[in-house]
Amino acid sequence: MTETSVRVSSLRRAYGDVVALDGVDLAFAAGTFTAVMGPSGSGKSTLLSCAAGLDRPTSGSVALDGVELTGLTERRLTLLRRERIGFVFQAFNLLPSLTAAQNVGLPLRLAGRRPSRTAVLEALARVGLAERAGHRPHQLSGGQQQRVALARALITRPTVLFGDEPTGALDTATSRDVLVMLRELVDREAQTTVMVTHDPVAASYADRVVFLVDGRVHGELPAPSAERVAAHLAGLERVPC
Description:
By secondary structure, the chain is of the alpha/beta class. It has one domain: P-loop containing nucleotide triphosphate hydrolases (Rossmann fold, 3-Layer(aba) Sandwich).
């Protein structure tokens, strides 16, 4: 039986009268790459935030390796996020005054641990940037900055890596480089990865695509191709509210 890294059950998230998630049930198997797609406002980013412990659901549950997140105190949830969850955003969110190495080591410093240079360089090496350790963000291209952000997310060897449009700010060629890297992390290191994207080409790098419409799961595609994903998305645009 395939191990489940993350499971969300009957997940609901409402902001006042606006329901962003409405009874979502999903499991993300260990060592797999899942893309989450859907029309604008379908709840994709909210799902990611709840699954990563960045936002608390209104009801339902989120379990990471069998640990129920929704019942944790803020302190315990913060500790779990630091140690077992990696997150990459569309905006790279690097501190401009810090070098690549210092940015990568930041999560460990925030956790009260002094990052070893060896661990930092290993994380940068995993994304092909060991030689750029001393460079600051303004000295790096957009793709290199995103790879530094990826190394920062990987420094703690997280159980799950979440990406919210991680290639959304990149050009086509650079986006492909980052996607190839994410795919290799899954294939080579069994890094469980969940990525929100609007791009069918990006989604084609995943093992499966889960579709959301109006905060609910509306099907999925295994072994997706860009063409099949695009066709499925076109059909979702015609789904009645």
